[in-house]
């Protein structure tokens, strides 16, 4: 077979192919689409758009939203996002609508649902868990500053004493 240069089109995947595969394996697109619903008037689902946002964010690109679709100009968008998906389906209007839906649904709720889905799908043992609370911040007046004598009583009443100090990232708290 004799190919000419005009017959060959090169598209990059870079590390985004692995990321897209993981997003598909976890089922993030399906979870988001099922939670936010499907608008039959739109060409791509909310889940696909969130996948595009994740890929764009991991592509280390900081462009205004109206230029968002240009990120996929040299990428294999059909491989990364799915067959029959075009760059112009991903525009700032669609991104705005999906971001509004995400806000209304609640990002914390969505994150928890995706996390629980990952735990179930990959059979992750949840016997042990860890919370790194070293960077929790409290701003305001410390009651312990007013009355140092009562501090020993507070220790008996509450196991946590709020004190001044430094977090693990060395910010004064």
List the topology elements.
Layout: H1 16-26, H2 28-36, H3 46-57, H4 77-80, H5 92-105, H6 107-121, H7 143-146, H8 151-157
Distance between the termini: 69 Å
Name the shape in a single word.
elongated
Give me the strand/helix succession.
HHHHHHHH
Provide the β-strand percentage band: under 5%
Number of DSSP E strands: 0
Domain unit count: 2
Query: Residue ranges: pLDDT <50 for 5 or more in a row?
Result: none
> Could you give a short account of the major beta sheet?
none
Helix share, percent: 40-55%
Number of helices: 8
| Mean pLDDT value | 81
What is the alpha-carbon Rg in Å? Answer: 24 Å
Protein described:
There is one protein chain. This protein is an all-alpha fold and 173 residues long. The protein folds into two domains: 9-121, no CATH class; 130-173, no CATH class. It has eight helices and no strands. α2 crosses α3. The termini are far apart. The mean pLDDT is 81.
